């Protein structure tokens, strides 16, 4: 490679890295602003001002949010839906995907056709609502869990991943006397840990960020999810979901501080969990999407 080519490549890299760094800053600034305002002391807070570093740090907004009964109810609802929903998502998705990998399964092609059909055609909001209503699930957590039980796209990706596993291991296990359930839980799942970790993150994030289904199916404010509560705080003109706006020292908390404190608290769990699953996340998505 000539010196001229080397200089051109280096210049390109320099410009490229500069653009990526600048774009990253643009994405990071709103998050820094949200954290900064949520930590700004009410005594020095100025409305409609841009903060990158709090002039005076205060945790009154977080204390107020975490002591609110409405926030506690929303946190409980979201944690419950996330844990139960993620476990059931993994169980149903992996068991159905494993069954569809078996060529001897009766009507296997028809089942796969139905799964693929749901990727192209969607019944719409009204039929979904009527189905949940007729099942008697309105205003219950199960309306949010069952309505998002299996994603056709995730099912196809998991099926592709399971098909990439060596079939000889299953044959050996069956020769040793293991039945189909034993093969699935003792052989297939342990080999699928990267995919399980990746889809655990997918499902958990989806349930944690549940908003639209909660808006449709939940009418009781005590069962609202975190995202629905945060929307009420941010979008609605009056903070009907928070009682009072005073600290223990009788300081009046700005509504903006309460809003952004709720946003930060709602984001923290996912930000904490993601680094621990990152290595499995990348590996699982790659293995589940390159089946030839």
UniProtKB/TrEMBL annotation:
Pfam families: BPD_transp_1. Its main location: membrane. It is a multi-pass membrane protein. The keyword Membrane applies. It comes from the Bacteria. Gene3D superfamilies: MetI-like. Coiled coil: none annotated. The chain crosses the membrane at residues 12-35, 74-98, 110-131, 143-162, 183-208, 258-277. This is Carbohydrate ABC transporter permease.
